[in-house]
Amino acid sequence: MKTTIAKAVMVALLGLGAAGSTYAADPATTGRHGHALSQEERAAKMAEHQAKFAEMVAKHQAALHDKLKLTAAQEPAWKTFVAAVTPTLPTTPVDHAAAASMTTPERLDQHLAMAKQHLAKMETRVAATKVFYAQLTPEQQKTFDAEAARMHHHMAGRMGHRMMMHHGGAM
C-alpha cells in the first residue's frame, strides 16, 4: 500500500516538474545574455529560426529524394508525402505571462490539448508514410528504412540531450 502511494506521489511530482519546465525561459524571448527582447526582436529571431529550420528540412528531404532514386511515376506520391510530413514550427512564441497566471489544472489541460494536437499530426504523418512507402520498390524501402532509422537515432540523441539540458541535467 505504501509503495503504491509513494509511486503516485512520485508520478504527480514528476508531472508537475514537467508541466512547470515547459514555461522556462524561451530562447525566442530572451537575448544572448538573458535580457528580454522587444516584440520586433522576438519576431525577427523567430523568423530567422524558422528559415533555418525550413532550409534544414528541405536539405534532408532532397537528400532522401536523391537516395531513393524515384521514378517519374513515383514523383506525385513523393510530393504528397512531403506535403503531409514536413514539420512546421510554431509561428507565435510561448506567452509566458499567460502561462504564469494559469492554475496547475489549467496548465495541465493546455499540455493535454497540445499533446492531442501532436498526436493528430503524428497520425497524419504515419498514414502519409504508409501510402508513400507502398509506392516504393523493395530496394527503395530498404533505403527508406535505413534513412528513417538513422534520422530516428539522430533525433533521439538530440532530444535526449535537450531534455537533459531542459531539466537541469537530471531526468
Describe this protein's structure:
The chain has 171 residues and is mostly helical. Helices cover 74% and strands 0% of the residues. It is built from six helices and no strands. Residues 1-26 and 163-171 have low confidence and may be disordered.
Gist?
With 171 residues, the chain is an all-alpha fold. 74% of the residues lie in helices and 0% in strands. Residues 1-26 and 163-171 have low confidence and may be disordered.
How many DSSP helices?
Answer: 6
Task: Tell how many strands the DSSP assignment holds.
Answer: 0
Element-by-element helix/strand order: HHHHHH
Briefly note the structural class of the backbone: mainly alpha
Q: Roughly what is the average pLDDT, rounded to an integer?
A: 77
Shape: elongated
Low-confidence runs: 1-26, 163-171
Set out the fold topology.
Blueprint: H1 2-21, H2 39-68, H3 75-85, H4 96-100, H5 104-134, H6 138-166
Helix pairs in contact: 3-5
List keywords for this structure.
disordered C terminus; mainly alpha; 171 residues; disordered N terminus; elongated
